[in-house]
Amino acid sequence: MATTTAPGTAAPAAGPPARKRKTVLGAPLWVGLLFLLPALVLLGALVVYPIGYTVWRSLFGANGSDFVWFDNYTEIFTGSDTQTALKNNAVWVVLAPTVTTALGLMFAVLTERIRWATAFKLVIFMPMAISMLAAGIIFRLVYEADPERGVANAVVVGVHDTFSESSAYPKAKPRPKGDLAAQKGGGFTTKATHDAGSPVALPLVGIKPDELSDAQDAKKPSSAGGEGLVGTVWLDFAKGGGGKPGEVDPGEKALKGVKVEAVKDGEVVASARTASDGTFTLDAEGPVQLRLPASNFTTPYNGVDWLGPSLITPAIIGSYVWMWSGFAMVLIAAGLASVPRELLEAARVDGASEWKVFTRITVPLLAPVLAVVLVTLMINVLKVFDLIWIIAPGSSMDDANVLALELYLSSFGGGSNQGVGSAIGVLLLLLVLPVMYLNVRRMRREARR
Fold first, then answer.
1. Are 135 and 319 in contact (CB under 8 A)?
2. Residue 385 placed within a domain
3. Domain contains 411
4. pLDDT (tens digit per residue) in 244-289
5. Are 427 and 89 in contact (CB under 8 A)?
6. What range(s) does the ABC transmembrane type-1 domain occupy (predicted)?
């Protein structure tokens, strides 16, 4: 039935036409989705599907056919290898980003006060151009145990030997059945007592003749009136053999610089060092025993075992800090350039020290930048793998283990248990998500300002 409108009344107004959803540029929404489709397909294929399949695979056993529920996750927190990896990951997350950010802040502030700031920044940032593989090889050589090859131990040994006297002949020992006998704590002491009237022969063996190729021939000990107690210390061995044991024979080499002490009633009454011909003179009245102290024969200091079980993780963290300090410095320097200089100058005019200006003004104003650097590095260290794989030797690999390395070892490195490897991957994802959430929340908060 047709409707009619009463005379004198207006017809009801028609509603506004439905508006089609459009993009920011005014094109239909389906056009924008069409352009996004390739990226969405790649995102699903390369990110969403692998994450979903990894979560599903983590619920199965090593062969992929037995559904084991959460047994793989239980193994992560009960196995000794994964417990070590979790502990080392905690050390990495706390120590590496903190030290790297602190050094980046220090470098960024210092570069504002030096003339060659650009060159300094270039040198600090240059390690970022090196791959993790190359950096691992470099630091494997840096941490080499032999001081003649490893830079770190060369420096440590050089400093140690500057303040501590090194031994002259670490492998020397007395001739068997001779007058010298080993003492507790090292060193050798004569069994008999000696007077100034009789020269003392102190023969030693155990030294390679090649090590004394530049040494002079030993001189036979001789006594002259008023010279005190004299004697000779030498290597009682000559190439080709021959000669009499305990006597200085032609061709036998002198031991220069050996410390000799005269001991009477348990106290040292005189001491001297052998000359280039091995002879020595002690201003002591007999009878005394002669002692060659342990300092002549102790094993030389060879540095620190950087790649040993106790220091392997801090050593690798040091290589990471070397690489990423330049990254932190560049970002912090960019934030420092936007700090209002009038605030800093006003604080200085009011009498604030440079330390207070730094801690009360510079650091609070740089807090957003420092948060970006810190969060970025925290995410990065959770994925660290290649540095540990290259630097850590086989004997210390278990002590340097982290989750990313354990994931590889469990799945492909001989463990042949992709169920546990998938569970470790899910755990890494869960550890990264809170950090990513904080980062996204901070970015949104800054966008609203």
1. yes
2. yes
3. yes
4. 887 888 888 888 888 998 888 888 888 888 888 888 888 887 788 8
5. no
6. 86-439
